[in-house]
Amino acid sequence: YVIGHSYGGHALGLLPNHDKVAAFYGFGVGAGWHGWMRRSEQFKVLLMWNLVLPLLTRWKGYCPWKMLGLGEDLPRDAFVQWRHWCRFPRYFFDDPQMPEIAHRYAAVTVPIMAANAVDDLWAPAPSRDAFMSGYRNAALSVRDIQPEAARGIGHMGYFRSSSQRLWQDALDWLVQPR
After folding, report:
1. Which of 6, 2, 1 is closest to 115 using CA atoms?
2. Alpha carbon distance 64, 72 (integer Å)
3. Is the pLDDT of residue 150 over 60?
4. Quick one: pLDDT at residue 24?
5. Whole-angstrom Cα distance, residue 67 to residue 59?
6. Is 110 helix (H, G, I), strand (E, B) or coil?
7. What percent of the chain has pLDDT over 90?
8. Eight-state DSSP code of residue 65
9. Could you tell me which of 11, 10, 7, 12 has the C-alpha nearest to residue 23?
């Protein structure tokens, strides 16, 4: 069994041994394209992608996410590649330089649950659905985590102790008979 968050949902299709996974549960998986986000968040994200992060990355030599309180630092080349893919509505599935990627993801056939909090500004349901459509041969289920269960989760709060019930839901789903 595998549980992933955000990029973790992308990584499943890149694994050479995804056939050894019995089931996958993803929290906050999305395509990363600003157009799926609320307008107010689109402005912030575009400002970060096109001004703040390129300047900070050039200055530091790596993308200093941690300095901004947004996650872990990224190598410069990983940031550049990620930024490039986030320009496409379906992430790297829409990148004309990566025609083979759709075949890798189509080969995944494990049961998948994609659960996104409704207050996740970076991976709202349309973003999740755009990315997860790449797993076209998987038994895909989706879950929108409603406000009473998602108070203050956003994109990074799935790992807080206040989200413990979500983890039990994930474990329960993973072990159900298929």
Report:
1. 6
2. 8
3. no
4. 97
5. 13
6. coil
7. 85
8. T
9. 12
CA distance 25 to 5: 9
Axis-axis angle for helices 76-85, 53-60 (nearest 10): 160
**134 has pLDDT over 80:** yes
- CA geometry: angle at 134 spanning 168 and 139, to 5°? 50
Is pLDDT at 158 greater than 80 in this prediction? Answer: yes
Q: What is the pLDDT of residue 174?
A: 96
Average pLDDT over residues 81-103: 96
Which token pair is 163?
């989200």
CB 112 within 8 A of CB 139: yes
The DSSP 8-state label assigned to residue 99 in this structure reads T
Buried b (16+ CB within 10 A) or exposed e, 96-135: eeeeebbeebeebebbbbbbbbebbbbbbbbbbbbbbebb
